[in-house]
Design goal:
Elements (H helix, E strand, L loop, with lengths): L9 E3 L6 H12 L4 E5 L4 H17 L2 H7 L10 E5 L2 E2 L5 E2 L5 H4 L2 H25 L20 E7 L11 E6 L5 E6 L7 E4 L11 E2 L7 E5 L1 H6 L8 E5 L12 E8 L18 H9 L10 H10 L9
Helix pairs in contact: 1-5
The chain binds 2-oxoglutaric acid and fe (ii) ion (FE2).
InterPro entries: DIOX_N (IPR026992), IPNS-like_FE2OG_OXY (IPR044861), IPNS-like_sf (IPR027443), Iron_ascorbate_oxido_reductase (IPR050231), Oxoglu/Fe-dep_dioxygenase_dom (IPR005123)
Protein name: Fe2OG dioxygenase domain-containing protein
GO molecular function: metal ion binding; oxidoreductase activity
Length: about 325
Amino acid sequence: MHTKEAPVPVVDVAQLSDPHLLAAAVVEALSTTGFLFVRGHGLEDRVERMFRIAEHFFRNETPEEKLRLDPSKPAPDLKEGFNLGYIRPGQQAQATQPLPQLLEEHASELADFQHACFAFCQRLLQAFAVALDLPPGFFSSRHHEGPDSRSILRFLHYPSIPPGAQVDPNRAGAHSDYGSLTLLFQRKNGGEGLQILPTSEPLDGGKWQDTGIVNDALLVNVGDALELWSGARLKSTLHRVVLPTPLPADGVPERFSIAWFNQPTPDASLRTCVDVTSISENDLARMERKGVKPGSEITADEHLQARLASTYNLSRSS
Ligand SMILES: O=C(O)CCC(=O)C(=O)O
Ligand SMILES: [Fe+2]
């Protein structure tokens, strides 16, 4: 169900195998709010199973092993995450980066889920190319699966907040995603808290809006690489995860989410594919703030490295 403000539209894509029909259904939302709830995506049967695997992992992995897996882990009381790189599918599924034992035993299911996420993104990417009057494979042919792909599956856990705790209201700070597309899976119970700052709002002091949760839908959002590539025809929107304010007297339950960060092939050119002079002042300013220059010759890997090295400096008071 949507929250009151409900800024993110919902589409059902189950019947939209034709890229033209899919484009007509999804492009409007992704070129305005940059976020879209998608139903009928075909991953429904697998999502709850992935949440169970993630939940079991976060609950049972030892603190020492968690620290070893991610020594840079920030504020462990607010958020913890685990990134899974490419896993070769098959009976003897094989991770290309060693997996902790608790995940290794599910390698084949994890590989299957990663592939389903990748395949769904390929469908969307074909629709975007059609919408921009480009050859249908323009974006999708510049993405691939394999050990050298930069795409990752991320399990996220936001631990519960006990009654009366003094904590920063940000469970995850304001950011935009770096890649081409993100698929975000949320849970009905305890999953609330994701907010977006529509691109029409000022970066400092703008009005954040709750995305809400839509049952059985996954949330698609555009990342910085695709925003640059498409000359901001598709928008990479700031988002964050917040706690309710004031904090409820009985505390806040834990929250799990799962994200698939789809990345273009590292050496693919992200040269803007539309006339750069047609990009609005507002979009240029937003991109400049991220250190992104439309029209320049830059590869997906150079873009990713640059984005990883830079951070926003946004006020957290809004
Ligand atoms: O947990 C969420 O709902 C959002 C996570 C997110 O935006 C991210 O990891 O990039
Ligand atoms: Fe994100």
